[in-house]
Amino acid sequence: MTTKTRFAPSPTGYLHVGGARTALFSWLYARKHGGKFILRIEDTDIERSTQESVDAIFDGMNWLGLTHDEGPFYQTQRFDRYKEIIQQLLDQGDAYYCTCSREQLDQLREQQKANKEKPRYNGKCRAAEHSSDVEAVIRFKNPVEGEVVINDLVKGDIVVANKELDDLIIARSDRTPTYNLTVIVDDMDMGITHVIRGDDHINNTPRQINILKALGAELPQYAHVPMILGSDGARLSKRHGAVSVMQYRDDGYLPDALLNYLVRLGWSHGDQEIFSIDEMVELFDLKDVNVSASTFNSEKLLWLNHQYIMNSTPEHVAKHLAWHMKEKGIDLANGPELVGIVKAQRERSKTLVEMANASDYFYQEFETYDEKAAKKNFKQDTDLVLQRLMDKFSQLDTWNGERLHQIVLDTAEIMGLKLGKVAQPLRVAVSGAGVSPAIDITLSLLGREKTLARMARAIEFIKEKNNS
Ligand code: GLU
Q1: 3-state SS track over 181-248
Q2: Strands 137-140 and 95-98
Q3: Is 466's pLDDT higher than 80?
């Protein structure tokens, strides 16, 4: 049988890292077994579902490269099918109309609480045989005897006695289906073999199994993945910082670094920290997923991102850097190939945002000099140093890093200055600030025209300062 997994988000917000990790585990499991990964949008909560969220989920999945093989399916387009199944359950005596009012149910709950019993529906309408034309919800007739066993691939066997479960509402009084019904119909129709999802759904699972059994459906295997906690031990949420996948893109993370971080969050393979996608697919197994919750560690994610920036091919990093440069409104046609920028900046950039911010002067004029750097490096006679460099640079027939470097060395020697007193003012002159890649690399990337123009600008600036 083909392995089929699914990711079934409710589109009520952005794709968050917890959802992305569930999606990743499902995706990896399908890929590992040569199976199929299905994307299903659980949009039956019309009030809270938005197209914006649907798009945000697609964007997140695309950016992470978690491609689906079937779908996206929308539950709102399958209402006829859910109706059909609800009718089938009614016809075969596994569901019934329930007319108990809210007040009656509240009263029942109060009573049960007072008796220190677990609040649950008492099955009052089970035998009433209400007809379809009354105002009623539809409940599933849960078995009263026996137990449900979930052979959970992460948590191990979980046994729940049927007497602990009550008769679940599968359709509201307007006859729209509820979550547990839609999920099982879809899992059944879509041939899902492995339901991998957050362990916040574990209480739903025995109920879902019972409905599937009533329909004579093949049961999928279940794997409930523990939740992700913030550094304070509370469930990961916005107040711990970024939780939206796309926020990580905006903050300068590479998708592969985030995937690598997410795969290690609750799963391990010995001491290995860095996994290519191919390695993840090869090594991932549900049996190695931790049983307990894991803690999100932003520092470690940042470290991983830097590793990926340094060790991925410069072409790959450049592709993602291009997005950030465009976001900043930079026209890449006005400067060097981005691959060169990546090679020059990757050691010093932990994120692509840092890299982009440290590289804009290669493409566009900076407005002003960094105040501190200018004060420290543009001294009274610095214009003379820059002028000599400029004269020599202008005479070069080829704009070559080695030759440029040699001119900087010679100038320092001839003028009796320490190297820093030559290279550093030059750096401020061409980049506007005191930090840049090695000066020969900076000048090579910048090119002859921009370098000379900026040197002329700096000389003017220093002269004006001297005169004021
Ligand atoms: N739509 C549910 C959610 O977003 C997931 C349902 C499932 O995976 O079974 O929490």
Answers
A1: HHHHHHHHHCCCCEEEEEHHHCCCHHHHHHHHHHCCCCCCEEEEECCEECCCCCECCHHHCCCEHHHH
A2: antiparallel
A3: yes
Burial of 233 (0-12, 13-18, 19+ CB in 10 A): exposed
Q: Label residue 146 by pLDDT band (50, 70, 90).
A: very high
Cα–Cα separations (whole angstroms), residue 286 to 67, 222, 289: 20, 10, 5
Strand 221-225, strand 194-198: pairing? parallel
What the chain holds in terms of domains, given with CATH numbers, is: 313-363 (1.10.8), 365-468 (1.10.10.350)
Q: Distance between CA atoms of 20 and 34, rounded to whole angstroms? A: 21
Q: In the predicted model, is pLDDT for residue 241 greater than 80?
A: no
In the sheet where 36-41 sits, what is the strand order? 70-74, 36-41, 4-7, 194-198, 221-225
Bridging pattern class, strands 70-74 and 169-171 = unpaired
Q: HSE (CB half, 13 Å, CA atoms) of 462?
A: 23
CB of residue 197 inside a 6 A radius of ligand 1: yes
Ligand 1: centre distance to CA 9 (Å)? 5
Of the candidates 241, 208, 238, the one whose C-alpha atom is nearest the C-alpha of residue 224 is: 208
Question: Is 465 one of the annotated active-site residues of the chain?
Answer: no
User: Mean per-residue pLDDT for 17-23?
Assistant: 96
What mean pLDDT, rounded, does the chain reach? Answer: 96
Flag whether pLDDT at 131 surpasses 90: no
* pLDDT band at 4; cut points 50, 70, 90: very high
pLDDT band (50, 70, 90) for residue 133: confident
Whether residue 17 contacts residue 245, with contact meaning beta carbons closer than 8 Å, is answered with yes
User: For residue 468, is pLDDT > 90?
Assistant: no
User: How many CB atoms lie under 10 A from the CB of residue 365?
Assistant: 12
Counting ligand 1 atoms within 8 A of each CB, the residue from 181, 194, 197 with the most, and so the one to mutate, is 197
pTM score of the predicted model:
0.93
Give the pLDDT score at 78: 98
Distance 197 CA to ligand 1 centre (A): 7
Determine how many CB atoms are found less than 10 A away from the CB of residue 312.
Answer: 19
